[in-house]
Structures are given as C-alpha cells and as structure tokens.
Amino acid sequence: MRKEFSASIEKIAASDEKVIFLTGDLGFMALENVQEAMGARFINAGVSEQNLVSLAAGLASQGYTILCYSIAPFVVFRPAEQIRIDVCLHNMNVKIIGNGGGYGYGIMGATHHAIEDIAVLSSFQNMKCYIPFCNEDVDGLVNIMMQRKGPSYLRLGFGIKPERLELPAYSGVRKLSSGNKITVVGMGPAILNVFKAIETGLDAESVDLFVVSEMPLLELPESLLSSVEKTGKVLVVEEHVSRGGLGENLSLLLLEKSAGCKLVHRFACGYPDGLYGSQSYHQEMSGLDPEAILKTMKELSNE
Amino acid sequence: MSDIDKLRRIKTDCVKTLLGLYKRANAGHIGASLSCLDILVCLFFDRMKKDDKFILSKGHAAVALYTVLAKSGRIPESELDSFYKDGTLLGAHPPCSRMLEGVTFGTGSLGHGLSLAAGIALSNRFSGRKFNVYCVLSDGDCNEGSTWEAALFAAHQKLSNLVVVIDNNGLQGFGRSKDVLSLEPLAKKWESFNFEVTEASNGNDFNSLLNAFEEVENRGSEKPKCIIARTVKGSGVSYMENKMEWHYLPMSEDQYKTAVYESGAGNA
Q1: Which residues from A are below 8 Å from B131, CB to CB?
Q2: How large is the ipTM?
Q3: Is residue A23 one of the residues assigned to a domain?
C-alpha cells in the first residue's frame, strides 16, 4: 500500500501547501515522488521518532497538517507518549502513518511488527485509526483521513482486491458480500484471507461479510446489527492481538444492543512458538490463514 | 527607574502572588517555580516581543508561568483564584486543552518541550512569519533522550529563532544531578550539539540573565541558542534554597510568613 499511499499524498501535497511530511528516515523506493513533489515541505527528521512526533505537534499548532511516516511499530510505540500528550490531548492535526501493520514485515521479526497498535492508539483521546484492507482502498481512506481535522493513524499493509469485489462507497464499516448463515467481520487485509477461504470451499451465499476500516468503532451500523440478529453467529478476524482490538470493541457494542450471538474470535496470537517467518507463517500460527478460517467458518455455520 | 529595577519590582509582585497561590492550595513544587521565576520575568517583561512564543518544558513550575501570564495581562488576574480547584484550567501542570491563553502546549512529562518548540520555530520557514521561540528546560529535561533528539534536529535545521534556557539548579526529582545522572560539562554538551551557548553565572539575577540573552542573541549565527542559567532551587527563601524537599512540600503557616518576608514582598 506504500505506493498507493505515496501517490495519494503526492496529489494532496500539490494542492495544499499547508501539508508537511516528516519521515523517520524511511521511504526508500516508496516516497521519492513525495519528496520531489513537496520540496522543503518534506523533511527527513532522522531516526528519532519521539522528536518527530512532538515536532509535528509544534508545527501543527501553527496551522499545518503534518504526516509522520515510519515503520508502524517505530512510529507508534516509541513515541506513544508524544502521540498521547502532544498530538491527542491537544487535538492536533497530525497523521501518524505506520507502514507494515500486523505481521506485515514478516521475516524482519517481532521488532518490526505492529500487532498491538490499534489497542494503544484507539484508546487515546481524539484519535481515529484508519485501516485500509487492500491497495485499492488506500486512496479513498487517505482522502477521508486528510479531510478530518485531528489526530489520525493510518495502518498500511499489503493486499490485493479480489477481482470479483467492487469497492462499496466508503464508510467506517462496509458490507462486502451478503449471505445468511454466519456474519464475518474483519479488520484490514486479514479480511482477504476470508475471501480466499470462501472461494476455496464455502457457499458464498452463506456469509454476510463486513470490513471495519475505522477504529475505535463507536457505533454499530444497522446493517451489521441486523445481520447478527439474523445469523446469531459471528466470526471476527483481525491481525491484531485480542486485547483492545476489533473483537473486544465489537463484542461490547453487541452486548449494549442485547444482540445475543455466538462469537468466535481469530486474532494475532503473538509468537506462540518463538520462531520467525513470513507474514503468512505468522498468520498460520494464529489461525488467520485461509485454511484455518475456512475450517472455523464451516464449523460455525454447521452449528 | 532602570530596566533592572522595573524587573525586580515585577518579580517581587510575582513572588508574592506565587507564594499566595501555593499556600492557599497547600501545594508543592514551590522550589521549582522559584528557581525559574527570574528567567520567566526576564522573558515576559523584557526579551519577548509580541509574536514570540514560549514553552515551559518543566511543567511542574506551572505556578511561575501562571503568575507571569497574569501579571503581563495575558490571562485575567481573577483566573488565578481557580488554581488547584476542581474544574480549573490552572492545575499543578499547564493544561493540554488549548483553552488557556499563552499556553500553546500543556506540559508535565519531561522531555517534550524542546521538540515542540523546535516545531513551532520551524513553522516560520513555511509561513514566512518572524518570531523567536523560547523554551525553558530543567535538569530533569536534560536526562531525557528526546531532548537530545530535539537538540540534534534544531541544530541540523539551523533553527536560529529557537532559544533554549536551561534552569540548571543542580537538583532533580530524587537527588542532585551530579549524583543521579551527571550533566556536566553541560555547556560543552550543547556546544558540541552545535548550539550557540552562553552561561548566566547567576540565573536568579537579572543582570546576569539579560547579559546572557544579549550576548547569545547578538552573535548573529545561524545556530539555535542555549543559555545555561545557573540557578538555585527555591531561590530567595532561605530555608528552601538548594533543598530537594522543596520540590514537593507545601508551606506551613510560619514557613509561608517567612517566605513572604524574605522575598521582600511585605508581610503575609
């Protein structure tokens, strides 16, 4: 999604001189076009994420919109306090851009993964997290994010849109396909494994499929609530730890609506065997691969 | 009246206000506020021009800031009555709500101020506006890695409109700086980070402070500036001076009377 992101920002930066781009020394083969388009408004602040974020807040206080870019864990966890205080408590127009959400950096290992980012950031005041689920989804989300004044986080990953899928009009929760046996709700590119699972062995008409692209989820859309009431069976899929992610957030909203249902949660389990591998390997270890998801969906729909 | 006499008179009024606020609230952090009050008076009543910006990185000295904000008319004097009370903008640390005039950023966690100030200073490059940004740091601020990240950045970007003042009283949260985490040679550290550095040998004396500002700001270099103000924690109150406990303690009735008397602010 880096390429799509940089293409979006290049367009926005050309039309809005109030946008300033800060990178924490990353962007090789991804941000050169942004650097060229923005000139002096593109600053490599070096490998110093704490300074990067507070600096952004200082600039934002003078009327600018600031993007802070790095690998997701580096721009979320190291400067978490700077995001919490200088950006979020002050409601500054700063956009945190994290590349490689979830296990996106695969074999680079745990230092480079961000599987707790949404839990941390979505708990901060005024923060809105945006999670595109495929490359084609990035441009729309970037525009929505840039139009909203205030702290935001963009969790970039990698994902190719299934050919048969037409992107529905944007909203924080979008319905991607309709069915009648189970409700599946996913966050980010993990939803693409649900598509693969359906394609390999499930009647597509058995799944009501929703993708969540904004966290925290503050309200349950009527379409999702009625789906749960219809099926009574929910599978939540996310490449994020169980605590503080979509599963917990959605469960609370369902309980508040007294929507009784059976809920199964598939989430990032961390590093159960202590070993490293590709993104797919880590998904398998967490039961987030298409095969495991298919099995879960079959079990759930046959119950 | 000379400029120095004027500043001294203002300072005396501010001390009286400051001590009264702490006493009525039965609050601590008095030593930290008295340590940097002279710096703040010097900035708000002499050095800073209308558009200049100020960041108090050592947010625990909030009362010194509230006092000069009120004295300089940036906030109404009556606002001070709410200090420490439920529903106030004037808590123990400056507020993060952007609702208090003169406070662009709330602080309280050390190590944020210099980056914030650098960001504000950098904005001039894009806006074409001209102002200086003054940032007061504590010894504790200089323990924080983020402060040194900001120092690297400010020097690299040649933020010549950034002026850092270090309230170097040699005491921090739970010990003397020289015993906890040595900062010396502090001036050499800032010099080696490519700042224009000077020392105010007595950071609680207006002559010393004004000379330092004058000297460092007139060098005309592209570098950001740093003034190491050698201050005394609890300055002006004999039983508080250079005592770590006055980071925390509130004053008793007798201590309050003594403090007001010694600071030359008349009777309590």
Answers
A1: none
A2: 0.96
A3: yes
